[in-house]
Amino acid sequence: MRLPARCATGLLAVSLLVVPAPLAVANPADDTRTVLSGSGRGAGQEIRFATYNASLNRSSAGELVRDLETPGNAQARAIAEVLQINRPDVVLLNEFDYVPGNRAADLFDQNYLSVGQNGKAPLDYPYVYTAPSNTGAPSGYDLDNDGSVGGADDALGFGAFEGQYGMVIYSRYPILTESVRTFKDFLWKDMPGALLPDNPATKAPRDWYSASELAVLPLSSKSHWDVPVSVGGKTVHVLASHPTPPVFDGAEDRNGRRNSDEIRFWSDYITGGTDASYIYDDDGTAGGLQRGERFVVMGDQNSDPLDGDSAAGSIDQLLGNKLVRDPLPSSSGATEASAFQGGANAGHRSDPRFDTADFEDLDAGNIRADYVLPSRTLRVAGAGVFWPRAGMPGSELTGIFPFPTSDHRLVFVDVTLHGIRRR
């Protein structure tokens, strides 16, 4: 979930700029780069990781399955085309409703990814991972303190039904399912120094939630996943999440505080050792990653370094971690959109070329919300944001509000693994 797009004065959208761009063909008239297929990237060595908040969430349970059962859904076709243009080897889709038995995930693969869209080559993802989400799961408590129990705001994670705004990972490489760790049930109160919200109407500290509520309230608004992927005998941990947007609350800032701690969770997890000793997964295993493990943190973090509504320093908990490399994916299209749309964008402090989300312009403006952050044990070969400039190929897939795909843009990073076994 992200900030509401109430009045996006749009841009006919924008441009893909790969930094660096060793994968580019001859340049078009402007600086737009065209992404080559995976076969051109050094088989088994250069791996493209991507995250994409695809907005494939629906308003009621079962609706996404109905949309994906046939190959004619316009939004799903456009999302698939974006993926077929960029051709990630491993991709996390946020805002993809969870359906037990992988039903929705399999239908999207079969009817959309595996079918060439608008002349693009199909994608083959033999491996898929998805799991339950806290969204829409009833808490049994009045978590928003509005005097009634029930509904999306009182769920363990905001959602009208269980699984809304879920996640799914598609991969060309084997997912080590027996080694996956999930943290859906980790309780927020069990994080040392947790930013638990305070009820401003009382003198007691950190008392927005009662002790009974804290005994059931998880940290993760959806889930946190550690999904190991095997590439030629080398393991890369895909660390996937989608922290709650830091809005839709009051002076207690319960969503902003939760967002910050959801981001902090991965920083502690990758640091490992005593910093991660408090962490336990859904099977009861404690601790974080071992030092030296390869990882890529991916997902819509709903936090910009300087702009937007997240608590100050939230995303810096990851960007400032010495184990993380920030390739700074960018697009010239995002710069164009910021200037064209104006509004809140005019007062933003972050460089607009790093924006990944096209939010409404009156109050929010465009921000960097989506991240692919590899470990320093991985060498970065390229990075980019798919945001074609107005009139350039692909701009019809990003578009203006109401968007044909999503108000977020696909973000990718290419990393090179050495010493792997050729398949």
- Counting helices, strands and paired strands, the structural category is alpha+beta
The fraction of residues assigned to DSSP E strands is 15-25%
How many DSSP E strands?
13
The major sheet is characterized as: 6 strands, mixed
| Terminal residue distance | 38 Å
Query: What is the CA-atom radius of gyration, in angstroms?
Result: 20 Å
Biggest sheet: strand arrangement: 4-5-3-2-13-11
Instruction: Estimate the mean pLDDT confidence.
Output: 90
Describe the global form: globular
Show unreliable segments: 1-44
* Amount of helix: 10-25%
Q: How many helical stretches? A: 8
| SSE succession | EEHHEHEEEHEEHEHHEEEHE
Topology diagram in text:
Blueprint: E1 13-14, E2 46-56, H1 63-68, H2 74-86, E3 90-96, H3 103-113, E4 127-129, E5 167-171, E6 181-182, H4 211-214, E7 225-231, E8 234-240, H5 254-271, E9 294-300, H6 316-319, H7 332-341, E10 370-374, E11 379-385, E12 389-390, H8 395-398, E13 411-416
Parallel strand pairs: 2-3, 8-9
Antiparallel strand pairs: 1-12, 2-13, 3-5, 4-5, 6-7, 7-8, 9-10, 11-13
